[in-house]
Amino acid sequence: MSSTLSIAVAQSQVTPDIAVNGAHIRELIGRAAAQGAALVLLPEGALSGYAKAQIRGWGGFDWTGLRAELEQTAQHCAALGISAAIGSAHPLGPDERPHNSVYVIGPDGAPETRYDKRLLSNTEIRDWYTPGFEPVTIERQGFVFGLSICIEMQFPELFADYERIGSDAVLHATYGLGLAGETVLRAHAATNCLWIAVASPANAAAEGASGIIGPDGNWLARCSYGVDIAIAALDRNDSRLDIALNKARPWRRVARVGEIYAERRSWSPRSTKRSAF
Question: Nearest CA to 120 among 95, 101, 137?
Answer without folding.
Answer: 101
